[in-house]
Amino acid sequence: MQTDRETDMRGRGTPLFDGEVIVVTGGARGMGAAEARLAVAEGATVVIGDILDEAGEALADELGPRCRYRHLDVSVEADWAAAVEFASSLGQVSGLVNNAAIYVPQPLMDTPVEMFERHLRVNQLGCFLGMRAVVPAMKAGGGGSIVNLSSSAGLRGSPGSFAYSATKWAVRGMTKSAAMDLGPHGIRVNSLHPGPIDTPMIAFRTEEQMRQRLAKVPLGRMGGPEEVAEMVVFLLSRRGAYITGAEIAVDGGVSL
Ligand SMILES: NC(=O)c1ccc[n+]([C@@H]2O[C@H](COP(=O)([O-])OP(=O)(O)OC[C@H]3O[C@@H](n4cnc5c(N)ncnc54)[C@H](O)[C@@H]3O)[C@@H](O)[C@H]2O)c1
What we know:
Elements lengths: L3 H7 L10 E5 L4 H12 L3 E6 L2 H11 L3 E5 L5 H12 L4 E6 L14 H28 L3 E6 L12 H21 L4 E8 L12 H8 L10 H12 L10 E4 L6
Parallel strand pairs: 1-2, 1-4, 2-3, 4-5, 5-6, 6-7
Helix pairs in contact: 2-8, 4-5, 5-6
This protein binds nicotinamide-adenine-dinucleotide.
């Protein structure tokens, strides 16, 4: 008799998903767009949620009928309810990628309260609201997988980006607590920690700033969004079936 594991090993090369629905926040551009693209290529139905409506609609059109765009401000609870209802109308919701975030780097003493709160609302509250919104649908379907995007700034101290770093540590902590709460329901929760990745989020850096940053990366280069997407999709799929509560760095070694 063949075990599930042997059957799965034989299935290598076949798509990882069979129409299951995955919600990707901040999917209109950058890493989220790469994650949506790869998940669709692997057979998933993807709902992109973002506040960049034009870019989100354009990507969904490009990726075809298994990709839909939905306006979703992750810091607004009512937007989450509507997005999950929409996603559930397309099939079984089995995955969530809490990828949306803002990054306004300021050191502690230069961080106004409003800016700290803005980071909290999008990066931390957004992640909490997202997990809470999808869990009933995942439970009803017998399980699921949630990937929360933290950062190398959520693995160690990070100079000059106090509010951002605070929220990325929070995402890491919430991931572990959620993994313990949700494991008995077959829902896995992991945090992913990218290093410098070539996306619009860090495009404001000057060449000199990038040179200094890359000098601290053992692999000596920026990562591509598709390199992060590979790990996200792995964790969402059956390949990651025994991984939960883990913090996985995709960072060229920068957090060592
Ligand atoms: N790029 C990097 O070097 C880097 C490094 C470490 C971690 N990260 C993390 O990776 C994730 C993806 O970042 P990226 O580099 O692709 O950034 P990006 O700025 O290119 O994309 C972020 C997306 O989130 C969306 N977004 C912002 N606020 C939102 C809100 N309130 N509701 C819904 N969507 C919202 C933006 O519109 C955008 O489409 C983020 O969590 C980021 O913190 C990025």
